[in-house]
């Protein structure tokens, strides 16, 4: 067992969860720059608090909690300085239907944060409803309701698309 705050333990956690955290930060933020900022703050807080993580199997939920809190902190900060033209760059996707992928990403990013966060936690992060509720500090039923509302909004935004959404708990068509 590695010590609670070792470089090796941190590297293991980083490599295991960095892609999922990036996706979550990307969909929460309004730009690549905001996603990078929140992700940088998340990894800093994770390193500083690594000693509080007692069980390795809880690392994913722990990191998503940190990321969501850092996102909210950044959003609450008053903006000081000049506005930069931060165009919303979309990551490269090598898929059969890149247009649909880009439309879906835009539709997710346009959801209000209250619906976007739990949806992305479930889809991109693979978190359970109970983990999402705990991270957001809301009842389980509220987490379910917000995810359902997010899906309804996505379906309404793309009525001609056939949707089959798989979650870690259920299949919804």
Write up this protein.
This protein is 62% helix and 2% strand. Strand 1 (165-166) and strand 2 (171-172) form a beta hairpin. It has a two-stranded antiparallel sheet with strand order 1-2. By secondary structure, it is mainly alpha-helical. Helix 1 crosses helix 5 and helix 3 packs parallel to helix 6. The chain contains seven helices and two strands; from the N terminus they run H-H-H-H-H-H-H-E-E. It is globular, with a radius of gyration of 17 Å. It has two domains: 1-77, Orthogonal Bundle (Rna Polymerase Sigma Factor, Chain: A); 97-173, Winged helix-like DNA-binding domain superfamily/Winged helix DNA-binding domain (Arc Repressor Mutant, subunit A, Orthogonal Bundle), CATH 1.10.10. Mean pLDDT is 78; it is low at 80-98 and 165-173.
Strand and helix order: HHHHHHHEE
Number of helices: 7
Largest sheet: 2 strands, antiparallel
Rounded to an integer in angstroms, the radius of gyration calculated over CA atoms is 17 Å
DSSP helix fraction: 55-70%
The CATH superfamily of the largest domain appears as RNA polymerase sigma factor, region 2, helix turn helix motif
Based on secondary structure, the structural category is mainly alpha
The CATH architecture category of the largest domain equals Orthogonal Bundle
| Widest sheet: strand ordering | 1-2
Using the alpha-carbon principal axes, give the shape. globular
Question: Quick recap of the structure?
Answer:
The chain has 173 residues and is mostly helical.
Essential attributes:
Rna Polymerase Sigma Factor, Chain: A, 2 domains, mainly alpha, 2% strand, Arc Repressor Mutant, subunit A, 173 residues, globular
């Amino acid at each position: 067992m590695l010590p609670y705050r070792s470089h090796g333990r941190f590297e293991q956690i980083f490599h295991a969860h960095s892609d999922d955290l990036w996706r979550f930060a990307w969909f929460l933020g309004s730009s690549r720059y905001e996603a990078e900022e929140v992700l940088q703050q998340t990894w800093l807080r994770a390193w500083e608090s690594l000693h509080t993580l007692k069980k390795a199997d809880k690392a994913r939920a722990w990191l998503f909690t940190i990321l969501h809190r850092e996102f909210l902190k950044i959003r609450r900060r008053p903006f000081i300085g000049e506005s930069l033209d931060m165009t919303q760059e979309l990551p490269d996707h090598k898929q059969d239907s890149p247009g649909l992928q880009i439309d879906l990403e835009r539709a997710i990013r346009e959801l209000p944060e209250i619906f976007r966060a739990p949806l992305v936690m479930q889809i991109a992060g693979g978190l359970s409803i109970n983990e999402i509720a705990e991270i957001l500090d809301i009842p389980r039923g509220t987490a379910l309701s917000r995810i359902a509302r997010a899906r309804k909004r996505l379906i309404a935004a793309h009525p001609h698309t056939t949707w089959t959404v798989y979650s870690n708990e259920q299949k919804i068509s």
